[in-house]
Queue: 4 jobs
Job 1
Amino acid sequence: MIKVSIIVPVYNVAPYMERCWQSIRQQTYSNLEVIFVDDCGTDDSVRILESLMENKGRLDCRIIHHDRNRGLSVARNTGFAASTGDYVYFLDSDDAIMPDCIESLVGPLEEYEYDFVIGDYTVVGEGGYSPLILPQGPLKSNKEILEAYLDGKWYVMPWNKLCRRQFLLENELLFKERLIHEDVLWSFVMACKAKSLYVVKKPLYNYYVRNSSIMTSMSIEKDLGIYLDV
């Protein structure tokens, strides 16, 4: 049975921590390890999480603590370095996943070892939407995957993608530190390297738009400058 590592960075998300936790607890897929990375926020996020984890049951989960705030990219890298799953899944702690999320993404792997499996998602709130335009099914060449990426047919965000851990390791697919649009660079390198992809055309992830988030508070000038750096 394929083992999946769910990696969840935690930073100033106290109002949303329980929602995220419960969505993990409700997963229908059982062979999971869950790694929370405490990025030294200033609210009660970690205290709330520790309280919730007292009722973790048989769920394999733990918290890794940074010694100082190091940012989202490093938090994801820390979780990935500690993971032991065959596949890894990134989840933002202010979002939530559907109960059958991991089970639905693992399903195609019974027939083929894809470099990554991507699912659709739902936006809750007002904000930009990068749709998953590809139909259900496989892409089994890098040419198809890269062309689909360049055509904007699959989204750049790292969440809601089930990624083969060995593929990420072999291609040194880590997140660049101190880069706000780290997801753009990460997904572009993935598109350049991946040789197989499977699309699950089903909303499995709830992306909650917050007014205080990095993306919604970005100025046009700063946003453009960061994209030029990427």
Note: The mean pLDDT is 92.
Job 2
Amino acid sequence: NTELIVGLLTGQLDASFLVGPVTDDRLTIDKVCADPFVVMRAASAPVRSSIALADLADVPLVGHEACVCHEMVEEGMRDAGIRANYVFRSNDNAAVQAMVRAGLGVAVMPLLAIHADDPAIQVTPLEPALPQRSLLIAVPRDRPAPTAVRFMERSLAAGRHMVVG
């Protein structure tokens, strides 16, 4: 988020998506939608209606490197007393999904970061659920570009019609 906010404030970006919560009086920020964290497993894994958070202590995990979403997952696991066993990390969502597809481990990811139509993976709710991430859109408060304002309006309209989870 920090680099994106700097880009907005310096004029390098007209609009940006952020992961909330974010507050900055120099920006106009609106929530597009909430996005739940889910467990992604290989399609060959036994089908389950949900995965217990505690069960993640005993499995190899595939996940992100340092980023807002990774920090949210790590905090949720720490709060549950779980020490994560990561066997692969990448901030490329497709790479994480490929490692899960190959059976290297399971991943806890935001639902919107997963290509859920992939027949080689399954997406399962996490119980108890981690706090959802908030997808935000921001523009500079003092000089919003007209195209950025339209983009923001369309993003918010799309978010109102999204059914996530």
Note: Residues 146-160 form the longest helix (15 residues).
Job 3
Amino acid sequence: MKFAVIGDIHSNKYALESVLEDIKERNVDFVISTGDLVGYLPYPNEVIDLLRRHSVLSVKGNHDEFISNCTSITKDEFDQYTLEKKQASASAIYTNYVITDENRRYLKGLPSYLKFEIEGINFMVVHGSHRDISEYLYEDEEYLSELSMTLPTDVLICGHTHIPYHYSVNHKTFIN
């Protein structure tokens, strides 16, 4: 069984289209996302629609969680924001303004983790860590060694840091 892992797309539909095209050539059985589908860039609806169309399994990232818990804003409300507020929170305000109700519900319904087993190896997919959606896991031997003692699976696949790594300690494997 072969699967692909993507994450921290942050509303970048052009990068996502390119990655999905490459994945298609690699003959994988399924695709998993470590979350943060939205945020920063201007295509949250297009990214969610692409992921759904390609049956990508996803967990909820911290940006997804934030937007899913926001109340949609109207144009009048948006126009009343000060320039300072718009500049301080431009990405969140924009995403909250343009995201459809259906896609907001989709984000809200994403699980905080996925677990599966392949050939006797237990995997867990999260955004930050198995303890907290916003916890950053860096390639730090001491920290990951300590964290491995509470990891309920053989492999933890996460995102959030935007820094890829693969690290094994105490018979546990961390993949970012």
Note: The mean pLDDT is 96.
Job 4
Amino acid sequence: PQKSVRDMKKNGIVAILSLMLIGKLFSIFLCALVIGLVFRRYAVEMLKVATSQPLVEIGRGLVVLIVLPVVSVILLITILGIPFGILGLLSFFAILIFASVVAPIILGSIVHKLIFKPEEYQISWKTILLGVVLYQLLVFIPFVGWIGTFLLCLLAIGVMMKMKWNVLKEWR
């Protein structure tokens, strides 16, 4: 039997979406590997901060997520604030992208500790792969999955901001 054009279009769309999903999975995995293994000390410190007070870090992430774009847009209104407003918006988008890469590292290490019960949290390619796969699968759970990924991203943003704040305090 001959396939209709409609079936061929449907199969093409499914194939393209599947390739995009696999590409996203690999790109997040590679970025997370670089952060987790090349910048190991940073990743371990991030994990310690995330697991010590997760609710505080989620709150900090929420504050940054709300305040940074609002302040940046307000700065865009004034002539002198335009460069700072643009810089604020660019940093906001960079933070969102970076958080979507850091969140799977945190998730993988926490789930690995819950399942295998090692003494300390570990960061390896296995925990990073576990985190990336779980993070991607979490999106497909209706309602709860989106909330989970959002909270993980808030946690990652909060952790990153706390670490940057600590660096600034040491700089003085």
Note: The helical segments are 5-38, 40-52, 54-77, 82-116, 125-138, 144-171.
